[in-house]
Design goal:
Structural class: alpha+beta
Number of strands: 6
Shape: globular
Strand order of the largest sheet: 4-3-5-6
Order of helices and strands: EEEEHEEHH
Mean pLDDT: 94
Radius of gyration: 13 Å
Number of helices: 3
Distance between the termini: 31 Å
Low-confidence stretches: none
Length: 117
């Protein structure tokens, strides 16, 4: 399934208008991540696994300055560096992001270790 979220195509399972999905649908689950393998946005790695025909690869470190994180609330796209520096708040609209995502950084961003904040 795919859905246009603020003019960006987001693929996944039961993707909602703010990028929530069947796997993560809490109040702060409002980002989609671009994968290095295909350049497409998904709410989570589980959505990628469910609808893509290839294995997921994280966004490459040498491209951390390119847009790779979509805020589902306002539609802003952030570079990985901007997202990691934002402290779980969208710098454009102040929407809170789920701090639990930090536990999965290694799945989304090459060379960034997972941790809990």
């Amino acid at each position: 399934m795919r859905l246009e979220v603020h003019d960006t195509t987001v693929r996944g399972v039961d993707v909602g208008p703010e990028t929530r999905c069947a796997h993560y649908d809490g109040r702060t689950d409002v980002i989609a991540l671009r994968f290095g393998c295909c350049g497409r946005f998904f709410p989570c790695v589980e959505c990628h696994d469910a609808v893509a025909d290839h294995d997921p690869e994280p966004w490459p470190r040498e491209r951390f300055d390119e847009p790779a994180v979509l805020c589902g609330v306002c539609g802003s796209t952030l570079s990985v560096d901007e997202y990691l520096d934002a402290e779980f708040v969208c710098p454009a609209c102040d929407a809170p992001f789920n701090p639990g995502c930090a536990a999965h950084y290694d799945r989304y961003f090459e060379g960034v270790s997972s941790h809990r904040s």
